[in-house]
Amino acid sequence: MRGTPQGRTAYAEADVLKDDILQLPQVRATLNLEEPVALSLVALLHFVPDASDPYGLVRGLLDGLAPGSYLVLSHATEGFAREDLRELGEMYQRKGIDGKLRSRTEVARFFDGLDLLDPGVVVGHRWRPDEEPRLPDAEVGFYVGVGRRP
Ligand SMILES: C[S@@+](CC[C@H](N)C(=O)[O-])C[C@H]1O[C@@H](n2cnc3c(N)ncnc32)[C@H](O)[C@@H]1O
To answer: pLDDT tens digit string along 60-94?
Structure first.
């Protein structure tokens, strides 16, 4: 990905559990954090176990953003009791990669204190679809949401 006259792009290799990603030089040189931005945590937070305080992590990141900024996230869920997702989680654990599938209520908690955009926290293919979703929700197995920092 490269920057264009319409907008700049930068890449930073970082660990959200160890690095203060908003302070990275690549981020500071690219984004003006005095202005609203979008923070996308897409398919990331299920790699953050409860012991690493995922809610505190998201809160800390949002605290560094201007009012009017957006949080976009998607998160794999245990909500549909999918055996393959459970097995995938166990495989990650065996390889030393921690994480947690979360329920809809647990995913919705990431938006506490934000103005949640319609239609709220829903299975991914139900967030403003262009056409009526055809897959069963269980096959998607992810919740998504978008919130705005007041
Ligand atoms: C399923 S991929 C999603 C990638 C991308 N967001 C997307 O939706 O196409 C999960 C990503 O989370 C990243 N990830 C997992 N734990 C992380 C951590 N502690 N810090 C930063 N990135 C992490 C992985 O490197 C991987 O790129």
So the answer is: 999 999 999 999 999 999 888 788 888 888 899 89
Q: Are the CB atoms for 65 and 33 separated by under 8 Å?
A: yes
d(CA 15, ligand 1 centre) in Å? 9
Nearest CA to ligand 1 atom 16: 47
CA distances for 148 relative to 28, 77, 112, 139, angstroms: 21, 22, 10, 28
Task: Please give the domain boundaries of the chain with CATH numbers for all domains.
Answer: 38-148 (3.40.50.150)
Query: How far apart (Å, rounded) are the C-alpha atoms in residues 109 and 18?
Result: 22
For a mutational test of ligand 1's pocket, the pick from 16, 17, 47, i.e. the residue with the most ligand atoms closer than 8 A to its C-beta, is 47
**Cβ of residue 24 lying under 6 Å from some atom of ligand 1:** no
The rounded mean pLDDT for the chain is 94
Q: Tell me if 12 CB under 6 Å of ligand 1.
A: no
Mean pLDDT for the stretch of residues 49-62: 97
Residue range 119-124: average pLDDT?
Answer: 97
CA gap 14, 29 in Å, rounded: 16
Residue 49 Cα to ligand 1 middle (Å) = 14
When comparing pLDDT for 5 and 60, which is higher? 60
